[in-house]
Specification:
about 800 residues; six-stranded antiparallel β-sheet; single chain; seven-stranded mixed β-sheet; alpha+beta
């Protein structure tokens, strides 16, 4: 939200600098995200002064140039060569002196230097209005009134005041601060100064010749509707002061009527809408809901289908405005408008929010209505706008103020205890200080005791309904920084379940990071077309866009988008990991599943003079998977090849019916969907299952055996469908005590072998923790293993 420093000073009288106010605003809960100096025109007329042309003669060497002497308030006049056809002796003009930077409407800024033009010295420039941003004419130089004082800064002559723009990160609960009045109210409470409200005492009804009948059919969606008619207005450009006010906060001026409604919106926080009264059919306004699918053309020219839940402002024939959100194509004010109907209403926040979301419309008015406007401000804002319209557009107040308010919104009744407030804040704040802060915020004390206060909270503070809310208000104004940090900290012992989820995650994250992986955190919202199981998709009812309309069912595709982003920026070698959740709708219940994703693409290692660069392969992702399981001491799992639509090929580690991890290559279809043209490998861990396995693990410390291990190698022929895991399992079932490890060190498949056969070369590590193994013991174990391999796997031992 944008707030103007000069605008704020219309409500509060303070000499504090913008920088000082910025710190105060942040301390009282209105965080200032940026503070920028703003000038009505680029350059702010710095260096420009008023000059008096003393002499003006023809340039001796140029027909279209004049040589002038100009009094610019210095000790001596300066000579300036000027090419404007209207320059003449005796004029008061605007002069850019030597060293001044000029900012023209078109082209780049340039600095004025002392120079010679056709042989004559020129020490400045007499300016046209378009050369300094004060207009669009370049017919000649600006000629000022005769009473202009030479040497006066042009900035002062044109009454041009620098401003400062606060960009405030307004939280959704602070609807009361969504205007200059709201921000000024908080500052006045903090500074303990008076708040100056706009004077509307001169408002008066001059006739009732243009009364528009108003009927509110849905008082739940529109609890209050105020209006007034103004006739005989002249629609034209707004005066400079109003245009400047709006430009500072980023609002484009349109015409005096529309600009006034925008001004009052940002001034008091109350949205207004001005209708062309002559376009209101039947001279009647009806606030109601219309039939579902009713077509309606909005101001932007788009035809929208209305919902039966949309509140509409209608005339006797048709809907003309979406209440609190957006106007209709023919509902606004044009240059031909002479009579207007001014609306100032209080709409239900939930109704406006749903309508705005439904039609994907976001306006300054809906921003405020959605958060909750002040129902007591409608008439004040209406009169304020009507007086400004009379001042800037003429006209007469041609109807009484219509105010349909069947059930006035009562102030919130809140009971507060001094002891509870100080206890919750954690500091001993004097009772009188608490009371002073509360009343300075506009909250009325209905009754008072030694223990606390009975309060009437005004309707503009929509978020203050409980004692804790009042405590927050007191703390904001008292100052968070004024609460001392206690010297003693109390703590209690707590026992967490094993394993510690956060610690376990940190262990794996540290290991992966140490091995060159980067952690990514992708958006949980993603595209619906990424869903492999659409029936389980968790859809967003009010999606921000079609690209963020479902919750992710897998970590894969958001991570693939990260791969594509990096590859498109010449950073194709990626090593990613992500801890995240996937979301599913199963049997009408929402399910969240913690997952760990590891992803590889590009080169296995950075390019170096000492080694060739090679691409990552399946075995690199397998090494990463084995490292994770090894770090968590997860063993005793089965392996099988994947037959899964999510993988081109790969493996699965599992226990029983539960898959611990699936890993392999990304399919061509998924690569195409993410616009990735390189091979990508990834692993998808069931993180909750891993934690459950780790929880059941028992850590046993053993001394390293002092007796040596022995290795024996076997080469064998087996059927092609026999896997290494099967052979390993047979070996461990044969010898559970002495056999410590089985590894494969060679696999051969080729035409030199019988059909449907392959060759495995395995090594077996044997060790006894109690004694040194003898050859006899070793041979006995190996013979058993050979026999079982031959019997179970039909292995033929090669000698």
């Amino acid at each position: 939200m944008k707030i103007s420093y000069n605008w704020l000073k219309q409500f509060i009288q303070t000499d504090l600098t913008p920088q000082e106010l910025s710190l105060i605003l942040t301390n009282i809960g209105l965080e200032v995200e940026s503070l920028d100096k703003v000038q009505p025109v680029v350059g702010g007329l710095e260096g420009l002064v008023i000059g008096h042309v003393l002499t003006c003669i023809q340039h001796p060497n140029a027909d279209r140039l004049r040589v002038t002497t100009v009094n610019v308030g210095a000790a001596e006049p300066v000579q300036i060569v000027c090419g404007a056809p209207n320059v003449a002796e005796g004029q008061k003009v605007v002069v850019a002196t030597v060293g001044t930077t000029v900012y023209p409407n078109e082209g780049e800024p340039f600095q004025i230097n002392k120079s010679k033009i056709r042989g004559e010295v020129s020490e400045g420039m007499i300016c046209a209005e378009d050369e300094i941003g004060l207009g669009g004419s370049h017919a000649g130089i600006m000629v000022l009134d005769a009473d202009a004082v030479p040497g006066m800064p042009a900035k002062e002559y044109f009454k041009m005041e620098d401003d400062y723009l606060f960009e405030i990160g307004l939280t959704p609960n602070r609807a009361d601060a969504a205007s200059h009045l709201g921000v000024a109210r908080d500052l006045a409470a903090y500074l303990r100064i008076e708040l100056t409200m706009p004077d509307i005492s001169s408002f008066k009804v001059e006739n009732e010749n243009s009364t528009i009948a108003v009927e509110v059919q849905d008082t739940d969606a529109c609890p209050r509707y105020s209006s007034v008619a103004i006739s005989g207005v002249t629609v034209k450009a707004s005066p400079e002061w109003l245009q400047d006010k709006l430009k500072v906060i980023g609002i484009r001026p349109i015409n005096n009527i529309v600009d006034i409604t925008n001004y009052v919106l940002h001034d008091l926080g109350q949205p207004l809408h001005a209708f062309d009264a002559d376009e209101i059919a039947g001279k009647q306004i009806i606030v109601k809901k219309v039939a579902d699918e009713t077509p309606f053309v909005t101001l932007d020219g788009i035809t929208r289908k209305l919902s039966a839940d949309d509140l509409m402002i209608c005339d006797a024939e048709k809907p003309v405005t979406i209440a609190g959100v957006y106007g209709g194509k023919n509902s606004g004010v044009s240059e031909k408008t002479t009579n207007i109907f001014l609306e100032s209403a209080y709409f239900n926040a939930v109704s406006v929010r749903k309508t705005a979301k439904r039609h994907t419309l976001k306006t300054d008015a809906s921003f405020r209505y959605e958060r909750g406007t002040d129902p007591e401000m409608t008439v004040t804002a209406l009169k304020r706008a009507a007086l400004l319209i009379q001042e800037l557009a003429g006209g007469q107040i041609s109807s009484a103020v219509g105010d349909i308010y069947p059930q006035p919104v009562a102030p919130f009744d809140v009971e507060v205890s001094y002891a509870n407030i100080t206890g919750l804040i954690g500091a001993a704040i004097p009772d009188e200080e608490i009371k002073a802060i509360i009343t300075s915020l506009g909250i009325t004390v209905a009754a008072e005791t030694q223990e606390g206060l009975s309060l009437k909270v005004p309707s503009f503070k929509v978020d203050v309904t409980r004692e804790c809310d009042v405590t927050e208000e007191v703390l904001r104004i008292y100052g968070y920084n004024n609460i001392e940090i206690p010297t003693k900290v109390n703590a209690s012992l707590s026992f967490t379940t094993k394993p510690d989820k956060e610690q376990t995650q940190h262990v794996i994250a540290d290991m992966l990071t140490a091995n060159g992986y980067l952690e990514i955190m992708c958006n949980s919202l993603t595209k619906e077309r990424y869903s492999k199981n659409p029936e389980e998709a968790v859809k967003i009812l009010n999606a921000l866009s079609i690209d963020l309309n479902v919750m992710r069912q897998s970590l894969l595709m958001p991570a693939m988008e990260s791969v594509a982003y990096n590859q498109n920026r010449k950073s194709a070698d990626v090593k990613f990991y992500e801890f995240g959740k996937t979301y599913h709708l199963i049997n009408e219940k929402y399910v969240e599943r913690p997952r760990l994703l590891i992803m590889l693409s590009g080169a296995a290692a950075a390019e170096s003079w000492s080694q060739r660069q090679s691409p990552v392969t399946f075995y690199h992702i397998k090494a990463a998977v084995d490292a994770v399981l090894g770090r968590l001491a997860v063993t005793n799992y089965q392996t099988e090849e994947l037959n899964d639509e999510n993988f081109a090929y790969g493996l699965k580690y599992f226990r029983g019916q539960q898959a611990i991890v699936s890993f392999g290559a990304v399919t061509a279809a998924d690569k195409k969907l993410a616009d990735v043209d390189k091979d990508v490998f990834y692993a998808d861990f069931d993180w909750s299952l891993l934690l459950e396995i780790v929880r059941k693990n028992k850590v046993i410390n053993k001394e390293i055996s002092k007796y040596p291990a022995v290795r024996r190698d076997l080469s064998m022929l087996v059927d092609t469908e026999v896997t290494f895991d099967a052979l390993k399992s047979i070996a461990f079932k044969t010898e559970k005590k002495l056999l410590k490890d089985v590894q494969v060190f060679d696999v051969y498949v080729g035409d030199k072998l019988p059909e449907n056969k392959k060759s495995y070369a395995l090594n077996f590590t044997l060790q006894d923790d109690q004694q040194t193994l003898t050859d006899k013991q070793i041979d006995a174990v190996m013979q058993k293993i050979i026999a079982n391999l031959a019997q179970t796997a039909k292995a033929e031992i090669r000698k």
